[in-house]
Amino acid sequence: MASMLVMGSVFLPGFVMDPLVSVLRERGLTAEWVAPAQVASAEAAAQAYVATARRLSATTAIAHSNAGNFVPAVAARSMVGRVVFLDAIVPPLTGGTWSVVPRRLRDSLLTRASHGLLPPWTKWWPEADVRALFPNDETFARVDASTPAVDASYLSSRVSAPADWSADLVCSYVAFGDTYADAAGVAASAGWPLQTLGLGHLGMLQSPTLVADAVLTS
Fold it and tell me: Which letter, b or e, does each residue of 177-197 get, where b requires 16 or more Cβ atoms within 10 Å of its Cβ?
């Protein structure tokens, strides 16, 4: 039976991946999400993803959003050989070292940090814009109340990978819109299977069945 590691972003509560995990399990797959909480560094986040991948003996990783940064580390330290980037960052295919968030976003967030903590992800943009990503008010309220205030030091973290980190992986990309248009472009240029679903950045909450279909056919 295939074992899937569903990698949630450090900026969101892991339970936003529950609907997708549930559908994958209904399809007879072993699936479990992990979303490192209250991490202060990229290495701490990487260790959490890798530990779960090893415990599950995962062969497939599904990485959402910021979790895409950690795919090279997971692939290098576990049995994962297939990766689906789910509206996520794609690390530079040439390897090297990069920041966990783009500089412009990092600078903006740091000006809003309070007592060493970043504002919760649901507070990064106007509420009306964020609310539109959720299927209903109840789900928005639950996620809004549970979204972690990540340590501001996390934004200074950098991630590294060798130039050949993706050479032995089977990779694909599922976009939920144009949030990560550049990453989707990298995937397309690399010849990876690419699907675009017009669901918004939290598409796994909007239509987990459609997302699961895309993951399994990409």
Answer: beebeebbebbeeeebebbeb
